[in-house]
Backbone:
């Protein structure tokens, strides 16, 4: 599969090619003709020159048509995501399903007007007027996406931008660009005018960095690591910023928990998507009274997560994104073991395949649980009570999401109030959401600006008010 970057709907030609290899078997998956500085400028200019705003109906039709096209090609997309990311078919089919939801909700939201009316005769200072609000598109949005959900992350940026009527330049991850480009082609096919979307890949100094710094860009919407997100915050200058960054989410298991549920959610939260979700369970904080029983059961449960060839229907955990990442995860496991942790199952590595691992007695200060470990690891830390669990949960630099397993409503409410993060899910994994609900973190995980279709449409538009005598 030989693909190209697109400037304003036109495929570019280039001598510079990015070749993509399958993380599982090293076979070539495809290539992309890369862009340079000249195309970066051309993409910005074409977005700024776009002067034929689409009606709400037209935008909604394009999104709905894209959804229908994706539905007919769901297996093709799932296979492509598997080939370039190493994620198993269970995950990539699920991901296509999520992207279909994003398109569905975006098409619905496009035709919903959130305008408000404020009567002015409501105070001694007021008078007989009314103030109305309406949303207008921005001139140019830049969206930068990570590798871990090659389709859904892209859909979560492009669909709300299209819904808002804002021309957008996408810079997808160079680890998974094929899915992103195929999705862009699908949007063009669905009727999206070329100038509404450009897709650029190439050296950071030629593409990502100039896009971030350019004063003509109104908003940079970035999802990725803390390090790159903070760099963007330092260099972006005067423009709107949406930063959705890393996570280190706790799953708190209290001593009144339904243990079957706790074990299922711990395994799903830790191993789904090869543990590469920003909201994956990255620390399991278990009440010491039930820790032994919970641990035994989680080890048993982990045996169900067959790790291997991502195209095999029986596989439940494919590779992580590349061998380098798998080696890093191996290293943090080794460090935890050196500090007193114990690997009870898994942890073996072959290339980019890392077998799901349960690690018990993990010290609170080791790198595996202080930083983000982006892979299928289930580190167990014991806590002595609710106070201790909340303190440990809040102790890292991150604040994306959390899960709490308890039957006690009072304790659940205490957690909702006191966990310093963007989401608290009771009796669910931290990653639970629907595609139109607000989603996003605080602290190092983000600026507290939410995504999800409804919120994201607000990033890609601004509110204008006008008033009339009434
Ligand atoms: P990453 O290394 O930060 O890369 C993300 C994107 O930033 C890629 O497109 C990358 O391009 C680009 N980039 C690299 N250097 C840049 C620069 N100097 N200026 C602008 N952009 C630059 O992240 P990743 O490894 O792909 O993704 C994993 C991370 O994303 C994890 O930390 C995960 O938790 C986080 N994440 C967060 C959320 C959330 O909603 N909070 C969701 C998903 C993932 P290249 O690929 O070309 O380097």
Residues:
């Amino acid at each position: 599969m030989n693909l190209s970057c697109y400037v304003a709907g036109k495929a570019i030609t280039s001598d510079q090619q990015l070749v993509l290899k399958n993380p599982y078997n090293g076979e070539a998956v495809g290539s992309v003709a890369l862009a340079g500085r000249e195309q970066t400028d051309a993409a910005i200019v074409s977005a700024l020159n776009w002067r034929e705003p689409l009606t709400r109906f037209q935008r909604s039709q394009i999104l709905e048509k894209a959804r229908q096209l994706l539905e007919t090609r769901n297996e093709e997309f799932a296979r492509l995501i598997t080939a370039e990311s190493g994620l198993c078919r269970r995950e990539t089919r699920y991901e296509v399903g999520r992207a279909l939801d994003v398109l569905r909700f975006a098409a619905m939201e496009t035709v919903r007007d959130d305008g408000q009316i404020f009567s002015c005769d409501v105070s001694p200072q007021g008078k007989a007027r009314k103030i109305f609000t309406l949303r207008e598109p921005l001139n140019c949005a830049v969206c930068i996406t990570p590798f871990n959900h090659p389709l859904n992350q892209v859909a979560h940026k492009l669909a709300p931008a299209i819904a808002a009527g804002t021309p957008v330049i996408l810079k997808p991850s160079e680890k998974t660009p094929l899915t992103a480009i195929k999705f862009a082609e699908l949007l063009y096919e669905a009727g999206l005018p070329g100038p509404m979307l450009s897709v650029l890949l190439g050296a950071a100094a030629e593409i990502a960095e100039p896009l971030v710094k350019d004063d003509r860009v109104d908003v940079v919407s970035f999802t990725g690591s803390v390090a790159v997100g903070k760099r963007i915050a330092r260099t972006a200058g005067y423009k709107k910023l949406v930063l959705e960054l890393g996570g280190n989410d706790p799953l708190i298991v209290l001593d009144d928990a339904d243990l079957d549920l706790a074990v299922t959610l711990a395994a799903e939260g830790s191993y789904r998507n090869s543990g590469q979700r920003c909201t994956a369970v990255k620390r399991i904080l278990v009440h010491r009274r039930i820790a032994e029983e919970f641990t035994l059961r989680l080890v048993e449960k982990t045996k169900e997560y067959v790790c291997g060839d991502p195209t095999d229907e029986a596989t439940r955990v494919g590779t992580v994104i590349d061998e380098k990442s798998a080696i890093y995860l191996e290293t943090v496991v080794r460090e935890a073991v050196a500090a007193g942790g114990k690997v009870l199952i898994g942890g073996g590595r072959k290339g980019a395949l890392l077998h799901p691992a349960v690690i018990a007695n993990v010290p609170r200060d080791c790198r595996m649980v202080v930083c983000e470990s982006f892979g299928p690891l289930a580190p167990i830390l014991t806590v002595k009570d609710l106070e201790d669990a909340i303190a440990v949960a809040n102790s890292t630099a991150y604040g994306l999401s959390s899960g709490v397993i308890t039957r006690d409503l009072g304790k659940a409410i205490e957690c909702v109030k006191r966990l310093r993060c963007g989401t608290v899910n009771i009796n669910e994994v931290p990653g639970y959401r629907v595609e139109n609900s607000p989603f996003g973190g605080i602290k190092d995980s983000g600026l507290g600006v939410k995504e999800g279709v409804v919120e994201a449409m607000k990033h890609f538009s601004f509110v204008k008010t006008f008033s009339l005598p009434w």
Summary: The radius of gyration is 23 Å. Residues 144-148, 153, 171-175, 204, 208-209, 212, 223-225, 228, 231-232, 244-247, 278, 372, 374, 400, 441, 445-446 surround NAP (CB under 6 Å). The first strand starts at residue 2 and ends at 4. The chain has two domains: 2-245+446-469, 249-434.
